[in-house]
Fold:
Amino acid sequence: MRDSSTKLDFDKLIIRQGTGSRKWDDIGSVFGSKEVLPLWIADMDFASPEAVTAKVIERAQHPLYAYNARQDSFNQAIVDWVKRQHDWDIEKEWIVQAPGVVPAIILSILALSEPGDGVIIQPPVYPPFFASIKDNNRAIVENPLVAKDGYYEIDFEDLEQKLANPKNKLLLLCNPHNPVGRVWTRDELTKVYNLCQKYKVDVLSDEIHSDLVYGGHKHTVFASLGTPVCKQSVTFMAASKTFNIAGLNTSYMIIPCSRRRGLIEAEVNRLHLRRNNLFGVLATEAAYQEGEAWLKALLVYLENNADILVQFVKTKLPNVKVVKPEGTFLAWLDFRAYFDNTEALDAFLINKAKVGLNSGKSFGRQGEGFARINFATQQAVLVGALTRIEKALMK
Ligand SMILES: Cc1ncc(COP(=O)(O)O)c(C=O)c1O
Structure:
């Protein structure tokens, strides 16, 4: 193993400006200000594991970057990873490639529903969920989460009502949930599973954050709940968030049902997406085969950042509310004690505090007065950003 956790230094500042980074180089166009400290889009300010970098460099030295294939070893690395991380037994033929989780969700929506059908989501939720449904002529059906003291739960009564409507064909689950940071428990997911079986609604389970789960919480793969698996499901995964390789456009779907898999593969073929990012395939394989020690160390660092964030908010921003996330490197800040509308909050964060966070309203109307912060950065940067907010609130 190349990445011994003792050698890792997540505190080391890595300059990302000038690398074509969406997070750092696009702040002018995104926030209208070049002065904000960016803690928005969900990538990390850390170097990927050395094993990943080494693999990419080694391959880059071969001077030909032509069409490539996903080798059997790629699928094997996924099978082994899913077993080790999530104790889920899958078969290689269930794996279908995709250039990203969002495109894969769209392919699945196109394959498993008809125009006009309803797709249920649980806002506040990852913004592209809304667009993936609406832009493909399906109806957005909201089953809003309910918050008790900032801790979000599923409204099962409302969910059952939505599932019972025969027009609603799919539930798009965010597991773990972005932005509220819930790692849905086995009990919660079993309830969802039973309801979806009852009303014959397929579940699209976005599990891109499944490896990023903190102490005491355990990720449950939704599809693993069935006997032997839930065939009414598609699971979306990638090494992109876990190992910071989102720029390599590589993800995969796990589809146990051969009929559904056939339908989705037909969409993949129709759009000529049966192609791979050469480096993404190799990086994913290397990460899954050699990145476990790195991930373990990363989770310690991230959880410490989550603790620092929560403690800072509690002691220095007492009217802002936050609940420590159970998973993901994102936290959901409630500024409603200060701002009753998002425009005022966004203007404050950008122009006064000079921090670039994700506007709560992009996560649905339930996000009014909230902002999402990405804490996958060096502790000094995180504390610097929080201090900017503290000082701006005091003005
Ligand atoms: C829940 C969720 N799904 C999907 C994505 C993006 O996936 P991709 O870049 O592979 O399309 C993100 C990125 O933040 C996410 O949070």
The two ends are 51 Å apart (CA to CA). The chain has two domains: 5-48+292-394, 56-290. The longest helix spans residues 292-316.
